[in-house]
Amino acid sequence: MPPTIHALLAARVDRLPRAERAVLERAAIGGRRFERAAVAALIPADERPNLDLRLLALVRKDFIHPRRAALHTGDTFAFRHALVRDAAYDAMAKELRAELHERHADWLEELGGEDEIVGYHLEQACRYRIEVAPMGQQRSDLALRATTRLGSAGRTALKRGDIRAAVTLLC
């Protein structure tokens, strides 16, 4: 992204009230599209009663927009543009990114999430933890969980004949 656009979007995110920014950052963990329930799982419990108000404020400010939920039962939203999502994601400290990716993976696991997606979030959590913290048991456990999930997803891709995906997931 050009530096001027990145700076402009980062400034817009920085000017948000703390609670709205926290919601936007947690939404960014899930990607360009995200579910309300995923954000609810990542924000503090005392903030959950105000989540709908925060999401509505972000819609009004044109950061996100509602989407129809095709296969999901909850409300689905999307960032207005991938660059907005990137600016919100980049604004977070790496330690917070690691924590949120791990918590998002835990939430997905509880819902029976796909190995590839859960593994991706665990891998991201592990990568950020490597950058910010010394090696420890928590990081080892995280790495094991990530490799288990990604390995399973790779073997599934191989069984369906998707060699490119299998190589990406297994290597």
Q: Can you give a write-up of this model?
A:
Helix content is 68%, strand content 6%. The protein has 2 domains: 3-90, Arc Repressor Mutant, subunit A (Orthogonal Bundle), CATH 1.10.10; 94-170. The model has no long low-confidence stretch (mean pLDDT 90). It has helices at residues 3-14, 18-29, 36-42, 51-60, 82-90, 94-110, 115-132, 137-159, 163-170, and strands at residues 33-35, 64-67, 76-79. With 171 residues, it is mainly alpha-helical. A hairpin with an 8-residue loop joins strand 2 and strand 3 (76-79). It contains 9 helices and 3 strands.
Architecture per CATH nomenclature, i.e. the level-2 architecture of the largest domain: Orthogonal Bundle
Q: Low-confidence spans: pLDDT under 50, at least 5 residues? A: none
Topology, number of strands = 3
What name does the CATH topology of the largest domain carry? Arc Repressor Mutant, subunit A
Mean of pLDDT: 90
What is the gyration radius calculated from CA atoms?
Answer: 17 Å
Broad shape: globular
Estimate what percentage of residues fall within beta strands: 5-15%
What is the succession of H and E elements? HHEHHEEHHHHH
Overall number of domains:
2
If strands are numbered along the chain, what order do they take across the biggest sheet?
1-3-2
CATH class of the largest domain: Mainly Alpha
What's the helical proportion of residues?
55-70%
Distance between the termini: 28 Å
